[in-house]
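Morning, I've got a small favour to ask if you have a moment. It would help a lot if you went through both lines with me. I owe you a coffee for this, so here goes:
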Amino acid sequence: MAKPKGRKVSESEVEMVEVVLPNDANPLGSMLGGKVMHLIDIVGAIAAHRHSRSVVVTVAVDNLDFVNPIRVGQLIILRARVTRSFHTSIEVAIKVYREDFITGERRQTSSAFVTYVALDQQGQPTKVPPVIPQTAEEKQEYREALARRRHRLAAAVRAHRRYFEKQKRKS
């Protein structure tokens, strides 16, 4: 199988904007964290799909914090772009902002790195093209992605070991 041709980071960039409505909020008028996570997964999957040109599935979400609330009536803006790809996996950086459309004030509320795996038509992992970083920021994110991946894989091994040990004891 031929090695996939590389793609620039800019080819995967996605921006998604929604108005926060009452059905998206908790009793305090702040957007539900689960709704934010849902939108993060969607925008990240679109970026990964643009890069891989295949179906992708979510395999990991790195450290997601909710720093500032997003209120009913404000805009939620999500920006995503691929930072690096490995054999079959793709890391996507996602930043979330709120915008008051009356004042124009914009503030970052969350960020996360989400990892996706590309699948072929039989649902099996498939090779993805390499990332071609061009700007200084893209090159830095690309370099840092390897350390994040190593940390993510080590954490997954520990978590899976604990989970499967509990399952064995129950059997």
About this structure: Strands lie at 7-8, 14-19, 55-62, 75-85, 89-99, 106-119, 131-132.
